[in-house]
Amino acid sequence: MSGRKDLCDRKRYSKRRTGQSVCRGERMNRIPMYLFTGFLGSGKTTFIKNWIIKKAEGKRLLLLLCEDGAVKYPEDFRREYAIVCSRIRNSGDLTKELLSELVTESGAQAVIVEYNGFWSTRRLKQAMPESLFLKDKIFIGNAEDVLIYNRNLSPQLIDKIASSSQAYINRIRPDEPKQVYHDMIRSTSGRCSLFFVNADGRTERDVLPNRAPYNMREKLVLVPPDKFAFFCADLNRLPEAYEGHELQVNGLVVENDDGTTPAAYRIGAETARSVDDVGSFWSIPCVFEGEPPVGKWVQITCTVELPAEPEGEPHLIVKSYSPGFSMEGKPILFI
Questions:
Q1: Cα 9 to Cα 259: distance, rounded to the nearest angstrom
Q2: Are residues 214 and 223 in contact, defined by beta-carbon separation less than 8 angstroms?
Q3: What is the pTM of this model?
Q4: pLDDT in tens, 87-101
Q5: I need a labelling partner for 237 at 20 to 30 A (CA). Which of 144, 163, 183, 209 fits?
Q6: Range of the domain at 319
């Protein structure tokens, strides 16, 4: 039996960013939710106000406020942009019933969430009624303290950055080295677009290269087993950079049952941000000719097939495989 399927068979988005898989047609009758994450003092309110000015497009907005920042939304601003505000003081208050009621009463055409930095985003996703879908997730960090959060509250920070489409580092000094922020974001998300915002409000897109731990100039690119996490993040961020290359990758074969891609299998490994982090399993869809040894570590020789959808995942097209090196119990770091 061949594991290969037509990647265009299902008109679905692969929702690495939102944790959901939704057909395009289903979205047309649902209300988009925009999730803005970050810790108190990161600049979320100012960012959201500017975002509304540029992108509200006359829609009636429901704004859910999940923490009290120093910057407010003045009444005249709310009136001008047709904003209905609702304050959520406890994460336990987030329920499908409450959100459905707020959407109905406000007549909202879009929902904006200014989220609490200490609440799990999974809580919000579990509370989303069928009338909503998560359109976008944006992380805002303050250069003055985001590295402290990275050291001391890494799981909370990972939760906010993971699956975000964009990340903004505010209040960065012109002479400040940006590599450390680049590495912080890239160690969690390979596809998140990163921007630096200076004190005067000027925005600069991150163009720093990822420091690849393997030679992309070789005819056969050898990805070391302990560099799978970097490879996984980098492949999802810049799949075009791997197109046309032949790769050798080590990982654990698992069945693909997440419903986000037609590929029958995935290859992955347990990954972590640091030696103190709780590991998580990262994987890449794989297309095998025949049935691979599910549950076994293998070393595959493969090429990359670009995603069929804009938000889809790249696939590894396996040409051959052999027994691999087991990384069981050894979480692979992203550095």
A1: 13
A2: yes
A3: 0.65
A4: 999 999 999 999 999
A5: 144
A6: 220-333
